[in-house]
């Protein structure tokens, strides 16, 4: 049976979404209802810790697993502090570690991410680290206790697609934990491509939130992720250099 289990929870949907950049965040509830998305990531700095005011958590249905992320952290120490704050504020045990000190490309710092993962996994968090695709870092994250690894497809918010495809393919082949492609995925076809390679799931924010019709785009992503997974399970046929006829080309005119 094709099961995805992370942090002891079996997930039916392999599309994870972000909650940033929506013109109207109340649409997140409709997306969850229409696509079955179960994981929604939220930047802790957008959560009102006093529970009042304009709290993004109001827009995230209760049945979802909340995946607080440490957006804004520039070091492992800052990420650890944000994760602990999230748990203390009742956001649960899951955390997506983002440690970024590069303001231009928002590339994750793998070394700091590994340090934070080690500490937080030891403290019982379900740790999903956002990472630059690199085999040694991915294996180190596994050893540090990561529940999954989340390599980027392209820089956050660029909608440029699966630019890191060849390395992500290696991570999928070599990692024991699920590989979730996160960031930069701009179109459903790119999510399907990641899933066809064997990615366990995709996390998409910008492409959905900034679409002309975010709800329809979320449905398109949901179907693409499912189609890509099915194609992976179906084991695509081999690719060849030269044409091979689909039906016999000879024999018609012989007597
Ligand atoms: C919200 C979140 O976690 C993003 O930082 C995530 O990495 C998604 O990236 P895109 O916005 O490029 O889909």
Automatic annotation (TrEMBL):
<keyword id="KW-0808">Transferase</keyword>
<dbReference type="Pfam" id="PF05690">
    <property type="entry name" value="ThiG"/>
</dbReference>
<protein>
    <recommendedName>
        <fullName>Thiazole synthase</fullName>
        <ecNumber>2.8.1.10</ecNumber>
    </recommendedName>
</protein>
<feature type="binding site">
    <location>
        <position position="157"/>
    </location>
    <ligand>
        <name>1-deoxy-D-xylulose 5-phosphate</name>
    </ligand>
</feature>
<feature type="active site" description="Schiff-base intermediate with DXP">
    <location>
        <position position="96"/>
    </location>
</feature>
<comment type="pathway">
    <text>Cofactor biosynthesis; thiamine diphosphate biosynthesis.</text>
</comment>
<comment type="subunit">
    <text>Homotetramer. Forms heterodimers with either ThiH or ThiS.</text>
</comment>
<feature type="binding site">
    <location>
        <begin position="183"/>
        <end position="184"/>
    </location>
    <ligand>
        <name>1-deoxy-D-xylulose 5-phosphate</name>
    </ligand>
</feature>
<keyword id="KW-0704">Schiff base</keyword>
<dbReference type="InterPro" id="IPR013785">
    <property type="entry name" value="Aldolase_TIM"/>
</dbReference>
<feature type="domain" description="Thiazole synthase ThiG">
    <location>
        <begin position="6"/>
        <end position="248"/>
    </location>
</feature>
<dbReference type="InterPro" id="IPR008867">
    <property type="entry name" value="ThiG"/>
</dbReference>
<dbReference type="InterPro" id="IPR033983">
    <property type="entry name" value="Thiazole_synthase_ThiG"/>
</dbReference>
<dbReference type="GO" id="GO:0005737">
    <property type="term" value="C:cytoplasm"/>
</dbReference>
<comment type="similarity">
    <text>Belongs to the ThiG family.</text>
</comment>
<dbReference type="GO" id="GO:1990107">
    <property type="term" value="F:thiazole synthase activity"/>
</dbReference>
<comment type="function">
    <text>Catalyzes the rearrangement of 1-deoxy-D-xylulose 5-phosphate (DXP) to produce the thiazole phosphate moiety of thiamine. Sulfur is provided by the thiocarboxylate moiety of the carrier protein ThiS. In vitro, sulfur can be provided by H(2)S.</text>
</comment>
<feature type="binding site">
    <location>
        <begin position="205"/>
        <end position="206"/>
    </location>
    <ligand>
        <name>1-deoxy-D-xylulose 5-phosphate</name>
    </ligand>
</feature>
<dbReference type="GO" id="GO:0009229">
    <property type="term" value="P:thiamine diphosphate biosynthetic process"/>
</dbReference>
<keyword id="KW-0784">Thiamine biosynthesis</keyword>
<keyword id="KW-0963">Cytoplasm</keyword>
